[in-house]
Write a structure and sequence with these properties.
It is a single chain. The protein is α/β, with parallel strands linked by helices. It has a domain of 208 residues: TIM Barrel (Alpha-Beta Barrel), CATH 3.20.20.100. The protein is built from ten helices and eleven strands. A seven-stranded parallel sheet has the order 3-4-5-8-9-10-11, covered by helices on one side. The protein is globular. The two termini are 31 Å apart. The relative contact order is 0.15.
Length: 300
């Protein structure tokens, strides 16, 4: 698997473009801008909110986002349908990745289900909702504890061999689970919760970096909204003339060349704010200050 990053110069005060943070080649096939978009927070109803969500998805792509993350779990397929409505036919270079492995069991209930036959059905449904014949990156939303990892990943590998899946990703895995999965199939991405104040999966990130596997941190900027956020974050944001969320994204982008943050929002203003983070460059001293920072509350 190959990967590379590239940077472009930035002008203070200009609107951010995702490409300013460099690019990464997922699976050696899909070269995407490292700053992506998570679609989970896009509402599908009522009609007015849906219209606004469609506008946000379209604006993200207009501004240069080339990696969008969704899942069957998000609205039980409604989020995938929303993206198809907003963006189909998809422009060249856009990678929409979705996740399977969790099924609805009732109005509020859900359960892991990564049995091979279930994964096959979930993938087929996702392809239909996204209006595609092949999903470029298909992620296993969670490891099903009732099914051997080799069976779960093996089922996805079979779908890959059939041409329905381009590349296979995992979500919320340990280093041991990642290593076991890689014995069955090539793994192109890992999506784990990770941010400045929640580094529980540091070793997973390091394993991904060593193997050239894309690492998609979810909840990348959650701490920005907290009133008691550490003073170091506020200090760096003030020095850069940036927001706390932008600093958190800049820290992630600087953390490793395999990190591809996917901040999500249903707001056009917040979308623009997030994309502007691609232009931020932290100094060594600012990075060191942030690296020493711990969360004031229990994030991990």
């Amino acid at each position: 698997m190959t990967s590379s990053t590239s940077s472009t110069s930035s002008t203070p005060g200009t609107a951010g473009t995702p490409g300013a943070a460099g690019t990464f080649s997922i699976g050696g096939e899909h070269r995407v801008n490292r700053l992506g978009f998570g679609a989970m927070r896009l509402p599908t109803e009522p009609a007015a909110d849906r219209k606004a969500a469609l506008a946000v998805a379209r604006r993200a792509v207009e501004r240069g986002v080339t990696l969008i993350d969704t899942a069957h779990l998000y609205g039980w397929g409604a989020n995938e349908e929303l993206l198809a409505e907003a963006l189909y036919p998809y422009p060249d270079g856009l990678l929409i990745t979705t996740k399977v492995g969790i099924l609805r069991t009732g109005p509020e209930g859900w359960a892991y289900d990564a049995r091979p036959e279930s994964l096959r059905e979930q993938v087929d449904q996702g392809l239909r909702r996204l209006r595609i014949e092949r999903v470029g990156l298909l992620q296993l939303h969670r490891i099903d504890p009732k099914v051997p990892i080799a069976e779960q990943v093996g089922a996805l590998r079979e779908l890959q061999e059939e041409g329905k899946i381009g590349h296979i990703g995992l979500s919320e895995v340990t280093t041991a689970q990642l290593a076991e999965a890689r014995q069955t199939a090539e793994i192109a991405s890992v999506q784990n919760r990770y941010n400045l104040f929640d580094r529980e999966h540091e070793q997973v990130l390091e394993a991904c970096e060593a193997a050239g596997i894309a690492f998609l941190p979810w909840r990348p900027v959650a701490a920005a909204a907290e009133p008691d956020r550490p003073s170091a974050l506020t200090t760096v944001a003030t020095d850069l003339g940036a927001t706390a969320a932008q600093v958190l994204l800049a820290w992630l982008l600087a953390r490793s060349p395999v990190v591809l943050p996917i901040p999500g929002t249903a707001s056009l203003a917040h979308l623009e704010e997030n994309l502007a983070a691609a232009h931020l460059r932290l100094t060594d001293s600012q990075r060191a200050l942030l690296d020493r920072t711990v969360a004031p509350t229990d994030h991990h």
